[in-house]
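Note to self: keep these together.
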Amino acid sequence: VHFPDVERVEWLNKVLVQAWPYFGTIMEKTFKEVVEPKIRAKNVHLKTCTFTKIHFGEKCPRINGIKAYTKEINRRQVILDLQICYIGDCEIHMDISKFNLGVKGIQLYGTLRVILEPLLTDPPFIGAVTLFFMQKPHLEINWAGMSNLLDIPGINVMSDSLIQDLIAARLVLPNRITVPLKKNMNIAHLRFPVPHGVIRVHLLEAENLVQKDSFLGAIRGKSDPYALLRVGTVQYRSKTVSRDLNPVWNETFEFVVHEVPGQDLEVDLYDEDPDKDDFMGSLLISLVDVMNDRAVDEWFPLSKTTSGHLHLKLEWLSLVNDQENLHEDKKGLSTAILIVYLDSAFNLPKNHFEYSNGECGAKKIKNNKYLKKMEREPSSFVLLTVGNKTQKSKTCNFSKDPTWGQAFTFFVHNAHSQSLHVEIKDKDRDSALGTSVVCLSHLLKDSNMTLDQRFQLDHSSSDSFIKMKLVLRALNVEEPDPQRVKAGVSASKQGPVRVMEKGGNQQKFGSPPNPDISKVPQVSKDSEALESLLRRDSRDNLDTNDSSAAPVPSETVAGLNEVEQEQNPEHRPSSALHTRAAVVPTLPVVQELRLAPSITSLGSLPSSCFELSSSNLDLHNGTEMPLGEIQLTVRYASVRQSLVVLVNGCRNLVPTSNRGVDPYVRIYLLPDRRWASRRKTSVKKKTLNPQYDEKFEFFESLEDVKKRTLDIAVKNSRPFISQERKELGKVRIDLSQEDLIKGFAQW
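Structure:
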């Protein structure tokens, strides 16, 4: 999706293409000289590990766009969001004993945040670079050799998710990698910055939810809704309300917010079923608006569904070091957060000793093999507990002086009475290597509510310590600025979306309060009448069978490289209004669709549409309204000498009957109309907003392609004897008018 402040960086992609072979050579050398010896040293069974083939392929990662933040941030830093897409053809094979394992393709995409800070007045002008993913990146791996077993359906999802979890443990918020560029630069505060604040979410109620349960496939019943709430990698689930389309939850959840702008609140509603939970709608809330408004109490329309509103009360809590705010909350809500920076430990005992209050006692040794195992250095991890929440650190192998370098956050209800319990354990044994208890009241003695020191370990040797930094911050609800115009329901985000989903809420509800009329563009009575007519027609033809497996709806790779186009912001009811799936266009958008730009201007306009034409079609809808839109990504791949066409999806197609449509896309590269040169997508069942994300290639020289025309038709896959119209719309693109090397991705 292309926002006005997301910039294309084709020059950078060209640099990556040129440098990729050299990067591959460096990585091949690294795998042989660094990675292979480390794998062999891990385990006696891995001593025969050998990389037999290391090839990083011809396809390099691509940066679809970069967004730079300059106004909302500190003047001594630069923040960049990189939209990364890697569809690689790398091949890496390794032999272990007689087994061959390998990878022969990777797909990865996500948003990587790069923070350059602090900015300096002397070379290298940037003190350090910090990297992390805002959300878990999407990952698909094509295994080879014996590891082909991981491609078995069911196992492949599990194997990819395990690797995603490994990436998340190091590179997804709140975890980050910081690389110092200047010598003697202290990067501790860059690796573990204090969070921006806390968002308190009151999940109150919903109404007019869609009916998902049915009896014998015909009689519609009531649903059993529950909600999943996410900020970053933290997810909570609400209770399930049985047989109620107007559920009342009255539950409260709290999330630590590490990056604003960047992180959003996601809410998904599901109908609980014994087999597969049905999707009932979703929300995406901008935390920037909540932070600015301080408090939002609104009915939000649900996306990706035909009806439903969700009532949320959102509170932004800032972090202050004021002890007056630490009194216990009568409702049992949190009053502070504790941030634990876990650094390292020193002189941990070996496994063949048991320590109790500093006294050492010998462990009975059963045999020599057990003795050898116990004489090695411990592989330790840390369990940190505050109240009823316990978090676990990573494991540091074979070291009596382990260094973890991790940060953890805990919600605190009463800082005067609660404590932090620390326990260091060996992964090979159940007994602890040392424990420590820190009363949070000790932090209150410091004016900054901070402790940074070594703590003596109990039940360990007399010279065993753990080094931690503890920071306590009170949660403060600030009064909203009376001069500020609140975002209200507009805090819900309506983009970016790859393809417009069916639904949105075309119905008007009486009970939820309406957003402020002044925020919605005024239209005439004729316009209102036309809009209501559009909504009624669209509602009649909606496909309500939109469900996805809980808890995370799957998304396919958009595939290539280009950022998608966002509609002109002046046509939206509110600049901040963003729901995950779009609603049927209101009148201002419809007016924009009528005035679709000419094909020759598509490459230059920041927001343009391929309007599906009704010319040469036998249409009887009695209107000149557009037949919908199709989103395409087109570019010429010089290396492969081919024209690459990515069909992303369609939206707002016009149905040909009450039965619904099963659309697919057919492509010709005119004047060639031979059957053998035809390309077509798969068929999507019963939808007016199909999403394909399918790529096609035409192997022609650039000179020949410049003389050709793309003929693209959206068709209805109908029964052979059906009388329904087959063609739903089509568009032709004169390729002589386009910059194909640069490419374009537009509706």
